[in-house]
Design brief:
This protein is an alpha/beta fold. It has one domain: Metallo-beta-lactamase, Chain A. The chain contains six helices and 14 strands. Strand 5, helix 3 and strand 6 form a beta-alpha-beta unit. It binds nickel (II) ion and manganese (II) ion. Nickel (II) ion binds next to loops.
């Protein structure tokens, strides 16, 4: 099982031959657009946490080319259908979806959600992904919230993918508490360094994690880690 990083909040999980893409934002990311060619990304599924452009910018183009099934909240899916996508699957918080690689539960994220054209984007969400190999929590853009304890109580999380860029989301200190709430010591950082508001001190982040006995993975854009 591989976890590829395409910058910002965009990851691709590869489990056997199945490819699951999250929050595609590449062509608008100065750190990623030279390294990642969206025309070469293969995807069977695209999960979108909320409607903000830095999470959905390249979704329509990739979905049209790959015919990936796009999963997001009702409002995001309705907007994607207006952009011409047909293979969409709307969900909402508390629901669970069984797919060929495992199952995914849709959980709260404390953030906002509007579409790039300003229309209503429903509520932002995170994903709890259970597979026969590893279980992951992809929190989406969120503040620290006590609801995360429920995730740790109901599922053994192996890796938590958490924002660490501060300003719009949690910073590293709250991400460490979030990892405690979900009972997981392996943190993969996202939503940092992409633009000025969220540039972080990576050494500080690593130090904080080490002190709390957490492993922090900051994957280079275009690289992957084996889970
Ligand atoms: Ni956002
Ligand atoms: Mn964002």
């Amino acid at each position: 099982m591989k976890l590829h990083y395409y910058g910002h909040s965009c990851f691709l999980i590869e489990i056997e031959s199945i490819k699951i893409l999250f929050d595609p934002f590449i062509t608008g990311n100065d750190l990623a657009k030279e390294k990642i060619d969206i025309n070469t990304i293969e995807a069977d599924y695209i999960f979108i946490s909320h409607g903000h452009a830095d999470h959905i910018l390249d979704a329509v183009e990739i979905a049209k080319r790959t015919n990936a099934k796009v999963v997001s909240n009702w409002e995001v899916c309705a907007w994607l259908e207006k952009q011409g996508l047909t293979n969409v699957h709307p969900v909402n918080h508390g629901g669970r979806l069984s797919l060929d690689f495992g199952r995914v539960k849709f959980v709260n994220a404390v953030h906002s959600s509007s579409m790039p054209d300003g229309s209503y984007g429903g509520n932002p969400m995170g994903f709890v992904i259970e597979t026969k190999e590893k279980n992951l929590y992809y929190s989406g853009d969120t503040a620290l919230t006590y609801d995360m304890k429920l995730i740790g109580q109901s599922c053994k999380i192996d890796y938590c993918l958490l924002p660490i860029g501060d300003n719009f989301t949690m910073g590293i200190e709250d991400a460490i508490i979030a990892s405690d709430f979900v009972q997981c010591n392996q943190i993969v950082g996202l939503h940092y360094d992409t633009f000025g508001y969220i540039v972080i001190d990576k050494e500080f982040a690593h130090k904080k994690c080490k002190k709390k006995h957490k492993t922090l993975s900051l994957i280079e854009i275009g690289e992957y880690i084996e889970l």
